[in-house]
Every structure is written in C-alpha cells, then in structure tokens.
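Two proteins were folded this term; both appear here.
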Amino acid sequence: MKTWQLRTSLSAVAVLAISGWLALAGSQQKTPASQQQSADALLGAAQYQEQIQGRLEAAISIYRKVLGAADATREQKARAQFRIGACYERLGLGEARKAYEAVVANYADQAALAAEARARLAALAEPVGRGGSFPGAVTRRVWSGDIYGSPSADGRLLTYVDWTTGDLAVRDLSTGQNRRITKKGGWPQAGEFASASFISPDGMQVVYEWYRKESKEVRVCSLTGSNDRVLFQDPEVESVSPAGWSADGKQVLASFKRRGGAYEIALISVADGTARIVKSLGAPADAGLSLSPDGRRIAYGLSAKEDPSQHDIYLLAANGSEDTTLVRHPADDRLYGWTPDGKAILFGRQRSGTWDAWLLPVADGKVQSSGVLVKQNMGPIHPMGFTQKGAFFYGSSTSLSDIYVASIDPAAGRLLSPPRPAAQNAVFTYSSSAWSPDGRYLAYVLQEGPYDQRRFSIRSMETGDERSLPANMARLFTHRFTWSPDGRRLLVAGYDRKNNRHAIYQVDVQTGGLAPLVERQADESYAQPDWSPDGRSIFYYRNQPEAILTRDLQTGEQREILRGQDMVSGAGFFSWALSPDKSRLAFLTVTGKGVPGASMLKVVPVAGGAARELFRVPDPQFLSEVVWTPDGRYLLCFRGADRNELASGNQLDMAKELLSIPADGGQARRIDLPMDKLRWLSIHPDGRRIAFTAGSGITEIWAMESFLPPSPGNATPK
C-alpha cells in the first residue's frame, strides 16, 4: 500500500485519524479505545479491502465493526450489513442469506437497501422451473475474466479478449491455462484489438471481431492462431459484429451498421466471405441475435417503436421470407439464444427492476406456450452461448465503484483530507461526476443495470439531499459532462430514448428536458463536450475526421482547434481539457506504431500554434484523464499501472496515482491517494476539493445448468 504524503500544517488529530484508517485497512491490527475509528472511516477502510484489495474476509471484519460503532447512523449500519451479505455471496458462503435477512428484518426503513436485499434473497432461492417436470436451474461460477467470448460445444474451452494486449485468447477450463490466439504485439505497437468471438461447432476455428482505427473486420482462424484471415470487411459497413456460426460451420451470422445509419442482419459465407443481407432494420438488433441450430430461422431483439428503452423479440426466416413477433410485452425483453435442440429460445425479462430468465418453446416458427420461468433475478447479463449438453454460459458484471471527495494542495502535491464517499448508496454503480459552477452541487451518473440504463443524479454537498433527473437518455457517454456557466444545464454526448439519435445535448438540471445542440452527421460521433465561459459556444471531440472543434451555438459556425494528424505519429488524443479561460487546450496522446512507446501530456494554444509537451511516461505506464485547476496554474491527471500487471478484462483507464503538473512547465508532483483503479476526475471551483471514481467492476463467467427439459441434445451434465 502507498504511504500518504501529508501536509505539515495538518493537526496531530487529523494525522492520527488518517494513519489509523490506513493501519486498519492494511494490517487489521487492534486499535486502542482512545483511537477508535469513526463509522465513516471504518466504511472507507472496508470498501478499500472489498473493492480495491479484494480481501473479502478482511472487509467483512471491518463492516462488522461499523455495526457496533457508537457514531454509526442507521443508513451506515444497513449499508455495512448489506455489504457483509455481498461479500459472503461472492465467497459462495451460506452466510450471505443470513446477512441479507438481517437487512430486511432490522433496516426496513432503509428502503433502497432493504429492496436490494430482498432481491438478493430471491436470487439465492434457486427457483424451480414452472410449467415443466424438469428441475430448477443450477448456476456455477466458471471464471473471473473477460466476457466477450464463447464456450466450445463440449464446454472445455472459452475464448476471451486479453486486455493487457488486446489479443484474442482462449482458456482451457479443465486445466485453467490461458494462451493468446493472436499476437499483435501489444498496445504501443498496434492500436488494434479483438472483441466478440465464437468457436465453431467442430471446435476447430474461431470467428472474431477485430477493431482497427480505420476499419472494423470479421476474421477467422484456427484456435492455434494459424490460417488467420479477414472473412469480411467493407468500407461501406461502418461496424460489423459476428453473432455465431451455423451448425454446419459454413456460415456466420452477423449484424451490420452501414455508413449513413442503416442496420442489417446478414449471413456471411465462411468459404469466400460473401455476405447475404437477410433483413434491413431501422434500429440495431442490440437485444440479441441468434441462428437456430437447423439454420432455418434467426431470432433477434429490437427496440419497441413506442418506447426505445424497451425491447421485443422477433423471429425471421433465414431466407428473409417471414418475420413474426415472438415476444411482445410491456417489460424489457432481451434474447439470450436458441437452446441446442432448437426447440426453444432463452430470453431475459426485466420487470420491477429485476431480470429473470425465461424459456419459450418454439416449433415451426410458432410459440407453443406462454413460457417458463427458469431463473429469477439473473441480473443484467451478457449471453455467451450454449454447450451441446445444454449449459448456458453468460457474463455478469458486478460494479464496486464509488465516487469519492478529497482535498488536495496542487502546488505542494499533497493530500489535505482523506477521500470519503460522496454518496452512501450500495445499490447503484457510479460513473463520472462534475461540480456545479458555485461548488454547491455534485452531479454524477448512476447505473442501475445494463449500460443503457444510466441517469443523472444531483447531490447537494451542503444538505446531502439528492435528486435524480428523469431517465430520458438511452445512453450517456460518461467520460465527461459539464455544467453550463449559469449552472442551469448539463452538457453531455449520448442518445435520446425516443429517437435513438446520437448528439450533444444540453440537459435542464431542474426538469431533465433534452435539447440537441450538435446532431450527428453521417458517421461522426462526439464526446467530451465543454462550454465557453459565456455559454454561447461549445467545444467537443469528433471522431471522423478526428479533431477537437468549437461551435458558435447562435450562428452554427464551426472551427477546428486541433486535428488528429497534428498529434505525434498521428496517434490522436484520448483525453483533453480546456483551460479555465479557454485559451489553452491540454490533451493526452500516445506515440504511434514503430516508435518507442510513451504516453504524453501536451498543451496547445486554442488560437493556433505548436503543441508543447509538459510530461511523459514510458510504456507500459500510461496517463489518463486531465483537468485544469481553476487558477490555470496546474494540470491534474492520473498515472496508470504497468499494463502488464492488469488482469484480463480490466479496463486500461484504471490508474493508481494522481499527478499535479505545472501548466507552464516544471516538476510533476505525486499526490498519493489510498486506493487505485482511479477514474473520472473533476475539481471543485475552490481548487482544492476533487471528486473521482475509485473501484471497478468484477466480471465473472457463470454457467446455468439443469433447466432444460430432457432431450438427446440437452442431456443433464454429470
């Protein structure tokens, strides 16, 4: 663990409190009665053990101390009790049920936590399937790793993305050994990476999605990496994603997004890469896509016209001749896939905030019954596919992130007060945050389930009152949003629910009303918008061609400030920030292919001129985030860990320490925070307080078994 660098003017009492918290988090030694920790400090230490260190037993021990702390509020005790249950559940121990029951019995007044505890109890009940004679679903944890892969038909292998390099990899589930299938040379040598992948029915090949800056490809190779070739790439197709193989291994099901916005379902020939368009869609099939085992029908999930946040499931003939509705319901329904015998589809349904798994019998393209509930409270999952014996593999992400507030001295490079959670809610996932211009409010993004269920929440830092804005955004790009200078609006890039339209929006902080300011043109997408000091123009990032621009909101006049080719080696930028007076632009960039790897902080005049390098770190370290102090004298950014230390599936933007760098040049200073996996930094108008997100999601792969009716293709695993 890092040692905190404390300002010498701190009182002895403050030093004692901080060092006590660290001692508690690190060594778990007994503390004298005169140095007993506050409930707030205990919660912080427990969160550190649970979320950062992954030491669940140590976290449980500290959470129990919260229950006995003299100054603990009922909300703090309820939160600690709930986290005890969550830790036990992750450990696979039966004590989880008792812990959740204690939340329901003793803290019913804490409505959100009690409701979440009841939901977890329902999930632990392992319900028996209804309407059939087969036993209830049994789930088992397979692995903690990347979820964008698939199991082999025999259940022995599992493909995934090795995020330390971006390579496609495979894990032998019987031995626990991992190996890379592709060997592209790491992030500095090639800014490319794999994504979704599917093992062929015979277990000999894998088809996978390959991302390049200038193109998206579908590739196929053997599981050893030999015979790697581009199966499909079309300059008119902006994005292409494989969705599985035909049973005979001759075709690959895929979804296309064409330049200009059209979406299509296609079948690609494995022999020659030709694509046959089966159906054109008005929206992406983002709620599932699956080819039946006999190759005759395609099931897909599509947003409902009357409410884009809800999805229904449809059945399409593989020759395009028929298209019928399988599942239409006021709830949100998402396709998980066909069963191995082709007699049913498995799908998820969200009602009352929970996701349940249902089995729907289908014969000759027609629904045979109303469906069977096979598993309650699955949570938002990522389907990965079936084995031949009927085990359904899926990915599950559990977020352990919270937003913290701390005080720093940027000039001295010191921590002035320890980080404390900005919100005490164990139910939600927290993303980016932003201070209001007067510093009285902190706005942040909450996520309650799948990635497209995010919303804004605004918290008064004076009273602790919190209110949520209406959930009228289908998807928020949460890397950055900003307040308008008058404090009445938020500026964010995203999609609205009604039109599924990508744009830069202003959001009214009182009503949640949306107004588009910059609408998508052709294949453009936008990110990281910011206001001018007078609120009459905005700045934003555009991906194609890559540039940072400014736009006058009254005249619509647009001007490029910086283009991607102006960066070193044309590598582009991945984080940027305008100085408080908007005269300078700071950005992070990386050196390109063929040169020694480095991550750099640069500053360029907005009016034009050469970029000046302020700081760099050699690969495999990296820089992430960048913000200016309100006086424009310093730049704050995170420095990340050695990429080679990161486990597969972890994001590369999870840093370990905070740096303060003089904006006019000079020595960078490290500000030690007692945690890592740091993201989404923002600074208070007083120039001292910062808000940031710490912690990360845990991605796990599970298998659900014993829920299919007995059949030759669905034999119960032994």
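Next, the second protein.
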Amino acid sequence: MPSGVVLFRKSVCFLLVANEGEGVATSLVMPSKETPAGVTATLIGLAILGAVLLVWLLNFWGIILLFGILGVTTGTYTRTVPGFHALVLLNHFSGNQRAVFQGMNFTLPWESATQEIDLRVDLKEVCEESYASQDALMNAKYVYTVRPDVSGSNPGENVILYASYETDAIRQSARALFSMLLSDHFGKNSGPALLDKDFINKETFQHDPGRSLIAEFERDHAVKVTVRLENSNFSPKTQEARDSMSRASSFSNAVQRLIDGGMSRSEAEKVAKLMNLPGVKEYLFNVHAPDFRRS
C-alpha cells in the first residue's frame, strides 16, 4: 500500500442519496430466492409433528384445525421482502444470521428481522479538496458512489457483511482511500499533467496500485464503487502567482524585442509597460510659458 501523506488538504463534501434511474446508479440484478434446506426440513418437521399431535387428539378435525392454524399464523413462518430489498434475519437459538431477498420467504418461528437494506440506493458524495503538488496547490473535485454488492455466488453473505458496517463508516473509509490516492498522484507530478483529468483518472483509479486498493476495499465492505475526478485546477492564489510570473516573462520578452528593433531601453520599457501592465497610462502635457527664461 502506498504511503499516502496529504501535505495539505482542505475538504468540502456533499452527500446525496440517489435511487436507481437518476443517472448515477448502475443496473441491479437481484439474486435468486432460495430457502436453505435446513429451514425447509425444520418447517416440514414442525408441520408433521403438529399434524400427528392434532390427529391423535381430534382425529379428522385435527387436520382441519391444522390448516386453520397454518393460515392464521402465516407471519410466523414467512417474511415478505419488498422489491429490490434484502432482509437480515437472526436465529435466536444458534445466533447465526442469513439474508433473504424480495418476495415471500420461509423463515423459522425463532428467526427475527434485524435490518432491511434498500439495494437500489447509492451513496453519492461530491468532494472538493486541495492537494499540494510538486510546484503548485491544486483544487480537485471528485465524485464517488457506493452501493451494496449482491453479485457473485454468495449474495447473502455480502449483504450481512455490508450490514455489519455503519453507513458513515463506509463513506468515510472510501473518501479517505480516494483522497490518499489523489494526494499521492498530485504529490508526484507537476505542470500540465495536473490539469488533465482524464490522465489523472486513469493513473489514479484505473491503474495499480489504485485499482488494487479499490478492489480490496470493495471485497472488505461488500460494495461496488465508482469514482471519477470531475475537475482539477490551480488554487486561486497559485493561479494569481502564475499569472504574475507570466506577465513578468512577457514584459521581459517584449522589452528585449523592442530593443532588438532599435529602441532604447527606457523607451522599450515604457512601451512594454503600456502593452503588458494593466492600469499603466502615459500622459503628455504641453506647457506654454512665454515669460519663462532659463538661467
């Protein structure tokens, strides 16, 4: 991992929550709904045990009563999850957790819901920060999004891992990672490369070590991440200093060219000031003094 030391950083971030369809979220493919074999076997066993007990006590009427009980207590052994959501269940006997997805899911009577997660939601943050490069102070603006990852062969485990973090903790960790990568890049570069946002995006986020660190962050937090540098400019004071240096260089070049053209240095400097320095004007006065005598 690179040693990301931020020499100077001023951060201003704006957090937005964006639903899918607003242009910031990627397409979402929901995982298939599968009831664990152990849950199915336990529910069937409970139903058979109840049927045997009721038939032994009430004969045929026990079967009728069993169906009535199953109909009234549906909420005890099923959970309905809204579309594009996931629900984390806790087994109070074993202490294990599992995740179920949209639709009706069979659950054990001793399982309860601990957290419902909207999988359509991206955490989108717009950050404006200042970084010290080799020869300038840069203002950078970048945007990143974070969403739960339900792809792969174990989407339920991913949801549980994601739910184990506070949303603010994930956001702060992501911002710290991206800020470190940008700080490292600006600290190693100077000149025009600091203004080329396409080059910065490729070098910082799409090539190693940045690409590997982002992939590691996604695995550790069970998320999908997108990050993009939107703007990179010199800070106002840096730009002012660069403008002053540019004007000084332009003034020197103009004076030398005028001297080469045949002017004296005093005349060349006067003309160059009129051409390059704002607010510089030359006023000519004609004085009529007929009685003035030079002694």
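Confidence is low (pLDDT under 50) at residues 1-10, 17-25. The chain is about 45% helix and 25% strand. These notes refer to the second protein only.
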